[in-house]
Amino acid sequence: MNTYETDVAIIGGGAAGLAAAIEVKKANFEPLIIERARELGGILLQCIHAGFGLTEFNEELTGPEYAQRFINEVRKLGISYKTDTMVLEITPNRKVYAVNKNEGVIQISAKAVILAMGCRERTRGNINIPGFRPAGVFTAGQAQRFVNIEGYLPGKSIVILGSGDIGMIMARRLTWEGCKVNAVVEILPFVSGLIRNQVQCLEDYNIPLITGFTVTKIHGKDRLKGVTVSKVDRNFDRIVGTERFFECDALLLSVGLIPENELTRQMGAEMTKMGGPAVDNNLETSIEGVFACGNVLQVHDLVDLVSAESKRAGNNAVEYIKSRYKKELKKVSKIHCTAGENVNYVKPDYINASDLNKQVIFTFRVKQPDRRVQIQIKDEANKVLYKRKKRYVIPSEMVELKLNLENLEINPTCSELTIDVIPKPEPLIDEEEDE
Amino acid sequence: MNKKMAECEDTGVIDTIRCIVCPTGCEIDVIKEPDGEISFEGYSCNRGLEYAKQEFFAPKRILTTTIRVRNGFLPLVPVRVDKAILKEKLEDALQEIAVTEIEAPIKMGDVLIEDITGEDVNIIASRNLPKAED
Questions:
Q1: What does the buried/exposed string (b/e) look like for A16-29 if buried means 16 or more CB atoms within 10 Å of the residue's CB?
Q2: Domains plus CATH for chain B?
Q3: What is the mean pLDDT of chain B?
Q4: Whole-number Å distance between alpha carbons of A381 and A387
Q5: Domain A123-255's class?
Q6: What's the pLDDT tens digit per position in A100-145?
Q7: Distance in Å, alpha carbon of B57 to nearest chain A alpha carbon
Q8: Do the Cβ atoms of A64 and B126 come within 8 Å?
Q9: Residue A264: partners with Cβ closer than 8 Å, 6 or more residues away
Q10: What SS3 class is residue A127?
Q11: What does the pLDDT look like over A196-238, one tens digit per residue?
């Protein structure tokens, strides 16, 4: 068995892995990227539309351009990588076992590991659409790969389930390739992607958007012939009598993403209910020296935010090697960060009590859209340590709070911080009259 | 199409534009006065007004698609326009791209089709694409 030694093993060569590797190399440590696909770049390579890079490069790039810039940097810095190589197992003492067709099984011993595996799509099985299994039912990203990389169309007459950005962008893409998109169907009462995409991908081409409906029947035995959609009630149960039939030979499912954490779970890392590993303010998982960044940690809306997060992971992995690797660990108490009112999840899950003089980036998503809100952080005694106003919040937009913990004056014995998004308290009329 | 609306006989609200500048999504009414003057109502910031003007008088889009490749590592190369193209020219550009084939290797930024619709807009490659390995 071929064995390798490296400073930082980076699992995944997409947006997250590339950015992390570059930071490690710039700090004069050796990264090794392990990528299962035939080339570096990850999902960016098939996202040929524009809209990437506005914060990272201050210009609007396509996905392949964004990836190419990072790949060029990786090549320029002489960073090692292995493509066509699938990681099979990572042990808690940071041995990575992988396999490829040239070497068979290989072992990589690393001082630190960065998990950057990204996420995958939810499928028909995840959302339980009953009926036959004819050809023609695809996930949106799978269809995107066929159209943009392999050069095949998924069908000629299309229905798309899910109005997230990938779903709407595929509606336009297939229209441009000569397909007829009959409808985009959304189970929620509102569109889930950006308004920009609703206008430029659907309304520009008069593609009907049907909200409050979902696919309830698949027609056709060998090839898809059409779908029945039904209106749903508040519990997402179908309402009998509201069925509508759409002819189609392809159904694209754009119904959410799941962080791809089989390796993380197998290592025994603490996981959260959102599917990603629990991490502290250094993006370190519950396993020492193992860091996580990008969509494997939390599904991001913007690749620019993935790159920023992954650079932090790269730097933190380097800091780990410099200061804590092979040293006796002092037990540091941790402050638990939890999701409060109208908050779906919070990252990081923990803050090290020894880091209360540092800057921390909190990221979270709300459960419900709201306007004119107050974001607040309180401790377990309900003392509000921080608050700010925000004009609007929507579930599809991740909120980022960059805070200097020193300014929060957190009690050293604090055990829990909770983030709430609450309606902005209206000033009392009496108070206003006093002024 | 919108220009025609501006030339039509009707007055009052002749079109409504949904602003895409931010997630607020203001509905901006395009109003034609009896003297033919066009004005906009319903925007809540200057960027919104600018967007509505552009979208009403000369809507533009970023076209991204793929072009067939001969002897490439992949059968297609992703491409983009190097600046926004008039919405009404999209169809012409797509037709031209559909009948084009490029020989590998290709480098990001290579101009693959020059001045595709007579507005000085070029089609450029979005990535490097090496030759197929033998």
A1: bbbbbbbbbbbbeb
A2: 2-58 (no CATH), 64-125 (3.10.530.10)
A3: 91
A4: 16
A5: alpha beta
A6: 999 999 999 999 999 999 999 999 999 989 888 999 999 999 999 9
A7: 15
A8: yes
A9: A115, A117, A271, A276, A277, A285, A292, A296
A10: helix
A11: 899 999 999 999 999 999 999 999 999 999 999 999 999 999 9
Asked if residue A434 has pLDDT above 60, the reply is no
For residue A19, what is the enclosing H or E element? helix A15-26
Domain ranges of chain A: 2-120+258-329, 123-255, 336-429
Alpha carbon of A279: minimum distance to chain B alpha carbons (Å): 30
Check whether domain A336-429 has CATH 1.10.3470, yes or no: no
The minimal CB distance from A199 to the residues B18, B23, B64 is found for: B18
Residue-averaged pLDDT of chain A? 94
What is the pTM for the complete model shown?
Answer: 0.92
How far is it, in rounded angstroms, from Cα B37 to Cα B15? 14
Bridge partners, A400 (sequence order): A363
> Domain spanning A2-120+258-329: which CATH class is it, in words?
alpha beta
Distance CA(A61)–CA(B80), nearest Å, equals 9
> Taking the alpha carbons of B38, B42, B46, B51 in that order, is the dihedral positive or negative?
negative
Same fold, A2-120+258-329 and A123-255: yes
ipTM above 0.95, yes or no: no
